[in-house]
Amino acid sequence: MWGAVFLGAGLFVAASPYYRPIQQAARGIALVGGILAMLAAALGLLAATTGGSFRLPADQALLMTMLGAIGVFGVAAHRGLAGERSAA
């Protein structure tokens, strides 16, 4: 279910440059999604240190990397949509 929510939010943000009335909402969704993804990656890395040593299997390392990338791209989309809005 959460995968569908994130997919829908991503499609909403991706469609926003072509449909101006939803740009403000899409900027907010991109920022909130980006911040939540970066927070999830940070908390995942913090959880990997539980027990005194850092243990992160390869599949979880990939998950943390992708969450970090989603966070960076979400914040970049927020800033990019702001640039398009001020250029018009």
- Helix percentage range: over 70%
Average the pLDDT over all residues and give the rounded result.
87
* Beta strands, count: 0
Can you tell me the overall shape?
Answer: elongated
Number of domains: 1
- Helix count, per DSSP? 3
Instruction: Report strand %.
Output: under 5%
Structural class computed from helices and strand pairing: mainly alpha
Order of helices and strands: HHH
Q: How far apart, in Å, are the first and last alpha carbons?
A: 37 Å
Largest sheet: none
Runs in which pLDDT lies below 50 for 5 or more consecutive residues are none
Instruction: Work out the radius of gyration.
Output: 16 Å
Architecture overview:
- This protein has one domain (2-87).
- The chain is elongated, with a radius of gyration of 16 Å.
- Helix 1 packs across helix 2 and helix 2 (23-48) runs antiparallel to helix 3.
- It has helices at 2-15, 23-48, 58-87.
- The model has no long low-confidence stretch (mean pLDDT 87).
- Helix content is 80%, strand content 0%.
- It is mostly helical and 88 residues long.
- The longest helix is centred in the C-terminal third of the chain and has 30 residues, at 58-87.
Q: How are the SSEs ordered, and which strands pair?
A:
Layout: H1 2-15, H2 23-48, H3 58-87
Helix pairs in contact: 1-2, 2-3
